[in-house]
Write a structure and sequence with these properties.
Elements (H helix, E strand, L loop, with lengths): L5 E5 L1 H19 L4 E7 L3 H11 L3 E9 L12 E4 L9 E9 L3 H11 L5 E9 L12 E5 L5 E2 L15 E4 L2
Parallel strand pairs: 2-3, 2-5, 5-6, 6-7
Antiparallel strand pairs: 1-9, 3-4, 8-9
The structure holds 1-O-pyrophosphono-5-O-phosphono-alpha-D-ribofuranose.
């Protein structure tokens, strides 16, 4: 593995501390209400595992498969659903969990298709927010870290399917 191309941006201890804070804030905001947490695959799978445990209480886990980058380092702007939710979300408090919001196109599309399914409420949570390339006006309800305009990998984020298993967020320099 070409580790010399990676430099740590957010170390594991900072990630975990921030996720505990976010989880506590989310649970405080919803009180004792049940919450359906929708992880957007693949990138969110590691964050999803940690954030649902940090939220605690009555949580249901759902997953939505989406792809927009198709293996490169730049978005294609085309959002594709690869796996739909297994259960209805009508009447439920829903929280969409992403690893990163970059152009905002994916989240914008997901919010539109989920809103028509009649959730009781619909909010968003992203571990990372990269505002530099925003193409649509998305305000994320819960953000872990706002990051600079760098290509990042690790903790679920990939480059051509590599690096998702790093326990920290790193900047990838070609
Ligand atoms: C990434 C990420 C988000 C999306 C964000 O997914 O997980 O879903 O891109 O980018 P945007 O704000 O510019 O739309 P990707 O298509 O890389 O698929 P993956 O999650 O399977 O890695």
């Amino acid at each position: 593995m070409a580790r010399e191309q990676l430099s740590v941006l957010i170390p594991e201890d900072r990630l975990q501390a921030r996720i505990r804070e976010l989880g506590a804030k989310i649970r405080a905001d919803y009180g004792d209400e049940p919450l359906t947490v929708i992880g957007v695959l693949k990138g969110s799978f590691i964050f999803m595992a940690d954030i649902v445990r940090a939220i605690g209480g009555d949580v249901r886990c759902e997953f939505l498969g989406v792809s927009s980058y198709h293996g490169g380092t730049r978005t294609t702007g085309v959002v594709r659903i690869t796996d739909d939710l297994r259960n209805p979300i009508e009447g439920q408090h829903c929280l969409v969990v992403e690893d990163i919001i970059d152009t905002g196109l994916t989240m914008d599309y997901l919010l539109k298709i989920l809103a028509v399914r009649g959730p009781k409420s619909l909010r968003t949570c992203s571990l990372l927010d990269k505002p530099a390339h925003r193409e649509v006006d998305i305000t994320c309800d819960y953000v872990g870290f706002s990051i600079p305009d760098e290509f990042v990998v690790g903790y679920g984020l990939d480059l051509g399917e590599r690096y998702r298993n790093l326990p920290y967020i790193a900047v990838y320099s070609p």
